Design the sequence.
């Protein structure tokens, strides 16, 4: 349970984000839809890459942590995060460049 707690918190924040958007955008007609679609489009590259990388690497990270190999765990997580962030920025840049004004 302790190893999956960060995953549970991360998934829970998605629900809270929807509530926050609905609260602040409810004053203007159509704003909830526009804000939700903009958020989904903005997050698409990172969502696709990060969720796939997280699901694929979770068992590996859990095994490193359970074997008390904390330094290897930390470097592996840092490497994975930096690679996913770089690929996400690259994908977002492509979406901006290919998008119609």
Sequence:
């Amino acid at each position: 349970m302790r190893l999956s707690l960060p995953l549970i918190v991360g998934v829970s924040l998605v629900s809270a984000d929807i509530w926050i958007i609905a609260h602040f955008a409810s004053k203007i007609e159509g704003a909830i839809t526009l804000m939700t679609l903009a958020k989904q489009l903005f997050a698409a590259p990172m969502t696709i890459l990060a969720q796939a990388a997280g699901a694929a690497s979770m068992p590996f990270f859990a095994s490193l942590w359970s074997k008390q190999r904390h330094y290897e765990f930390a470097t592996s997580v840092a490497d994975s995060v930096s690679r996913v962030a770089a690929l996400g920025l690259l994908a977002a840049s492509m979406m901006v460049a290919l998008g119609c004004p």
